[in-house]
């Protein structure tokens, strides 16, 4: 592996790096700028020493330096916090189709919603996962009131009309 002359490779000046370090002091990007400053000043001769000084692995510092070489400070200071965590399985189009089917009354239960998504190639492991999806997106299943099988709707309507309004 060729030896890298870090003070030569790092384009920014010592003062500029110190200002950036102060500016990012309370953010998660602080250690990235500090790594550059340590390498530029010569306090650390290589990435291994910088990693030890920062309390990170050598591999992590290597990734940071590779992103710096790719796109300078602009690339190094890109926050990727929003990219963490599991990705949503359902696409926007599939979710809109699910909402439409729910509005039309084709879907009344979470199990039916699970089957609907499964038919569109979106495989949630369990129907309750679809229930979690609906809760995350603040969708409520619209269900009608239960009716007794022997109830006569005409008789009930007549009763409502004749009963006194209070």
TrEMBL record:
A Pfam family of this chain: HTH_29
Domain Winged helix-turn helix residue range list: 121-163
InterPro entries: Homeodomain-like_sf, Winged_HTH_dom
UniProt-recorded name of the protein: Winged helix-turn helix domain-containing protein
